[in-house]
């Protein structure tokens, strides 16, 4: 009798988990938006008569090939906020914290791949300015990281940052975001058992183990300094840090996949543990849906892409100017698929 009761409970738990996952999947898919607005960006190429006959809204033609946006892709914006405390709502103004790390995580179910796009925090783009009452003032060209500073430091600031990234990527659909205060890095790192890296630049001023060229297993505060620190007295220090972040995240994703494969609850526990230091519109049921899927998705050394461009010294701060054609091609390569001639 006891075995029967255990079996019934087990079945009920499994059913409940599947229901939660189904709800999460439906919620994510309901966030789908129209395709990016690429067509007017670069002068349209003439269409052949055959292409005109079967042309569909949202398609683009580039270098004699026709592409369609992959509507099954799910894209998430991950922000690292320069705050070393739990999240708390701020008064309207500019104290919401800057987004010192910005990444787009892209899940493609067609080839079961994960790609990550690193965005330099100094990327110059349109930034919406708001006053202390929260009213829109105007739009300026500035470093993309400052956008999160406007607003209330929580959901409002995240929505502002999400909008800025979307505009940079020609109104790219984004299915969810997570803004994590930098102080959460040790907990996130240690949840997957730590990460191995070969130190790219000397950081011994912050951690004696972080000698350039050394192979180290990052744990706790070592991970924090490796991902967070930059020497602002060095020109293009944000570029150097982004290279470390790329290296770290590539290794972290691999470790995270192994950890979740061995114990599915790792993702849910991590979500709950860092919640005080995170603002996200990705719900727990959505995480329940995503976690088992990620295990089967591939992520290789060529899966991490970076915006191409140039860092220059502006009148007051460093500025990274993205190469528009390279950005356009990156969007097509990651988010679009070639349309068959048949």
How do the helices and strands follow one another from N- to C-terminus?
A: HHEEEEEEEHEHEEHHHEHEEEHE
Number of separate domains: 1
According to CATH, the homologous superfamily is LCP protein
Lateral strand order in the biggest sheet: 11-8-3-4-5-12
Helix content: 25-40%
Q: State the name of the first-level CATH class.
A: Alpha Beta
CATH topology: Aminopeptidase
Instruction: Give the averaged pLDDT, no decimals.
Output: 87
Silhouette: globular
How many β-strands, per DSSP? 15
Structural class: alpha+beta
Number of helices: 9
CATH architecture: 3-Layer(aba) Sandwich
Pfam families: LytR_cpsA_psr
Protein name: LytR family transcriptional regulator
Domain Cell envelope-related transcriptional attenuator: 99-257
Organism: Parablautia muri
What can you tell me about this protein's structure?
The protein has a single domain, classed as LCP protein (Aminopeptidase), CATH 3.40.630. Strands 11-8-3-4-5-12 form a six-stranded mixed sheet, with helices on both faces. A three-stranded antiparallel sheet has the order 1-2-15. The chain is globular and about 65 Å long. The chain is built from nine helices and 15 strands. The N and C termini lie far apart (about 60 Å). It has about 350 residues and is of the alpha+beta class. Helix 1 (about 1-30) crosses helix 8. InterPro entries: LytR/CpsA/Psr_CW_biosynth, LytR_CpsA_psr. This is LytR family transcriptional regulator.
